[in-house]
Amino acid sequence: TSFGFKEVREEEKSKLVGNVFSSVASNYDLMNDLMSIGLHRLWKDRLVTKLGPFPGMKHLDVAGGTGDIAFRVLESIRSVSRRAMQDGFAETEEQTQIYICDINPNMLNIGKKRAIERGFAEDRYLHWVEGDAEALSFEDESMDGYTIGFGIRNVTHIEKALAEAYRVLKRGGRFLCLELSHVEFPVFKQLYDYYSFSVIPAVGELVAGDRESYQYLVESIRRFPNQDAFGRMIVDAGFQKVEYENLVGGVVAIHSGLKL
Ligand code: SAM
User: Where are the alpha helices (DSSP H) in 89-147?
Assistant: First the structure.
């Protein structure tokens, strides 16, 4: 039956995603920089600027194993706190809680290691949680912000992940998603296709010794809904003021929505 077929495919997808990230984990930082020519750093900065972190906030970064986004949220809160202290405002930084949730313990371990390297080791604000975007362990209406960076594309049921994002956010909370998206400009699109179908798998083989995983990553970008279709899914999950911003002509898009 078509139902049986779908089930097998979903099982395979989960297994594939697991394998990909176990294999990718150890080369993760290097590959990110190589594949995006360092741009992922700017994209993550932009995501956090849009979030507007504040001292005392409860934030959840899903699929955030490496801590890249969480560290930026924390740094941003600290710079706000420093300014607030200079202005003589009460110190609310103490209540800040940033949760990093990822399905893959290898990725979380990279993140924890990096936290030590960056001097965040003893940080009481960072919490590393192994978990699935589709079934979060957090309480209803417990978060001020939710981010997911280069993660939702790998989730088996995107609608479930969006429903969970909506559930855990407080009223007024913001959902932000950074994801590789779709390029439409003709010549740029051809260049980008060449880059992703030829260059990325080759670099994956050369650097990580794993062409297949990077081939899978490229294909998963193609299969992901385009900017407008994904925006509609966010609306369907209940979010309001849904919008997106394209970066580098749509190579990457940041979608945002509010739970009102
Ligand atoms: N957010 C980080 C960044 O931008 O550098 C990591 C992105 S990495 C490309 C994708 C991450 O999604 C991996 O760490 C993987 O383990 C995680 N992931 C995949 N499926 C997931 C799921 N269902 N729930 C939570 N995390 C998931």
Answer: 105-117
